[in-house]
Design brief:
Structural class: mainly alpha
Number of strands: 0
Largest sheet: none
Radius of gyration: 14 Å
Distance between the termini: 26 Å
Shape: globular
Number of helices: 3
Order of helices and strands: HHH
């Protein structure tokens, strides 16, 4: 398995008319999840979310690819 780098967000049963709409929906949910949190709480939320999503992906080689790409230019 390789890391998916093309837009790959969707909601089952939902029809989208633009490719970016599912990404916008996710971004809105992410921002709402952080609303009214302190910086420390937001950092903790991000750490938990990363671990939950890493577990969902499950493939260590894919996770290592994602880590390497995320680190580029930082």
């Amino acid at each position: 398995m390789t890391l998916q780098l093309q837009p790959n967000l969707a909601e089952p049963g939902q029809r989208y008319f633009r490719d970016f709409t599912p990404g916008d929906d996710f971004y809105e949910a992410l921002i709402e999840t952080h609303r009214d949190l302190s910086d420390e709480q937001s950092q903790l939320l991000n750490a938990k979310l990363i671990l939950l999503l890493a577990n969902q992906v499950g493939d260590i080689s894919v996770l290592k690819q994602a880590l390497a790409i995320a680190r580029e230019g930082v």
